[in-house]
Amino acid sequence: MAETLLDIRGLKTWFATDDGMVRAVDGIDLSINRGETVGVVGESGCGKTVTARSILKLIDMPPGRFEGGQILWQGRDLLPLDAADMDRIRAREIAIVFQEPMTSLNPVYTVGDQIAEVLREHEKLTRRKAIDRAVEMLSLVNIPNAKARVHDYPHQFSGGMRQRVMIALALSCRPKLLIADEPTTALDVTIQAQILELMQEMKSRFGMAIMLITHAMGVVAETCQRVIVMYAGKVVEEAPVAALFGSPRHPYTQGLIRSIPRVDRAATHKERLEAIPGTVPSLLDPPPGCRFAQRCRFATDVCRQAMPPLKQVGPGHFVRCVL
Fold first, then answer.
1. How far apart (Å, rounded) are the C-alpha atoms in residues 51 and 293?
2. Pick from 79, 80, 89, 72: which is nearest to 5 by CA?
3. Any bridge partners for residue 26, and if so which?
4. Which tens digits make up the pLDDT trace of 8-46?
5. Per the CB 3.0–4.6 Å rule, which of 78, 129, 229, 285 could disulfide with 237?
């Protein structure tokens, strides 16, 4: 059996606001095995990024708090750990590429100094050796003339090149798990493809696992082995990528897949993309029952009475739906 690196059990990450408690992540289960790429998909506001930040305990407290659950990293629960213990895990064992490459780098330090800082902190290298490793990492992510560009500032790089710097920064300590939070946001389509190809190449080189957070189903189909679909703070479906796209079982997943443009039929069929009606419910006071029921064309009274459990419907395929 594959070795489980990350095992999240019943995680609840809530935020206190003036209007009440926002249940951003409300009891999710998620696991990632060594060497695997797992996609986490869903609309904006469904809890993807909060889940990623919870793993590394990058939630501001207050207003955030962990209301329950476990985050088991190689069998060790991260939630009780203090800041010093978490610092030994961040970057060295679990690294993250944040959502916005334009704002995630510090504008007053060179990119080389920012990579070197991580290496000096976690691997105790001298400044000279850390800069040499930074040059090596920039070359690895295909930044031309890395020896000279290591002394440049973030504003001297394009958006795609900044994202490459972010990946070099995240991979500098050879982590076992890379969390990529929408790594292709705001990038041109051709640059998106290059970044995804680079991540797959780095995965093969370092033997790491990837947790890919995105709302682009096409990206998931191209790069992932397993997919987790989130909606309103809950996991509503989980399946191997072929099973999810070949036989999606939850109405929300079906809606996401129907919203993908069909390039293969564009020349012969003029079809309007199908949108999912309505909006994600407020997580201040989520409705009883299935949280997708208000937008689901198949919903019955049973759906609105109690939250359906996550049931297995095939090998590795789980769905939270009474139908």
1. 23
2. 72
3. 12
4. 999 999 999 999 999 999 999 999 999 999 999 988 888
5. 229
